[in-house]
């Protein structure tokens, strides 16, 4: 039986884009594809894994205009603003980030476009969402190297000695 830690270490190395992306991981761990998918769901449900998601390198795909929109909204509008923002085609992800010091900017929205106009139009759509009190736009100048989870190890001595 593969421990949760061993499973997380193996899964954190990433999956390839292919017809059956979980199959190689399942084979490596001597599990069925269904068992791999069930394990991921259980780890998320138990809070051992926060999320399991794709990391897309947007710039090589032609999406070279990007911006992070940070919005202020009241607690009562949070759900509505998030739902409306995720309905905008240029939005790749939208999430709430709570700040213990009361920082009022709590909705983070990432935009990607193949042209500057696409991103500008998406910003204006977000600005017009009822409940968005203010927003700031942080434009991306480049894409940083994306990597899988680091610091995950089954060797506790290595972790302690970092």
Description of the structure:
With about 160 residues, the chain is an alpha+beta fold. It folds into two domains: about 5-55, no CATH class; about 60-140, 2-Layer Sandwich (Alpha-Beta Plaits), CATH 3.30.70. The protein is built from six helices and four strands; from the N terminus they run H-H-H-E-H-E-E-H-E-H. Strands 2-3-1-4 form a four-stranded antiparallel β-sheet, with helices on one face. A hairpin with an 8-residue loop joins strand 2 and strand 3 (about 105-115). It is globular. The protein starts with a helix and ends with a helix. Mean pLDDT is about 85; it is low at about 150-160.
Mean pLDDT: 83
Order of helices and strands: HHHEHEEHEH
Largest sheet: 4 strands, antiparallel
Q: Strand order of the main beta sheet, please?
A: 2-3-1-4
Low-confidence stretches: 150-162
Shape, principal axes of CA atoms: globular
Supply Rg: 19 Å
User: What's the CATH architecture of the largest domain?
Assistant: 2-Layer Sandwich
Number of domains: 2
CATH superfamily membership of the largest domain: Lrp/AsnC effector binding domain/regulation of amino acid metabolism (RAM) domain
Strand content: 15-25%
SS elements, strand count:
4
Topology-level CATH name of the largest domain: Alpha-Beta Plaits
The span between the termini is 29 Å
Portion of residues in helices?
Answer: 25-40%
What top-tier CATH class of the largest domain fits best?
Alpha Beta
So how many helices?
Answer: 6
The helix/strand class is: alpha+beta
